[in-house]
Prior knowledge:
The chain is mainly alpha-helical. The chain contains four helices and two strands. It has a two-stranded antiparallel ribbon with strand order 1-2. A hairpin with a 4-residue loop joins β1 and β2. The radius of gyration is 23 Å and the shape is elongated.
Amino acid sequence: MKLCIDILDDTELRSSKIHVERAKFEVKGTFNPELKRKRKKVDKKTKQLQQNKLLNWDERPEIIRHKYERIVVMKNMFDLQQFKVFTSILIF
């Protein structure tokens, strides 16, 4: 991660500079648990049906990934010259 940030920060990409930094996660606003909606029997039943559907391997035609399970692939972001400069960092 650090190597990616070091190499990509302040580089030119499509005639503009990009800034790369580690993601920061924080809570927006305040959370009041009393305002949270209570689960009903119908909600529990639908959740159980969804879980059974996901766990049933025979009826699943394809795997549908959630938003948080996706992978980011970065293509054509590094040049051979950049790797030659950072070879001392790459060797452990």
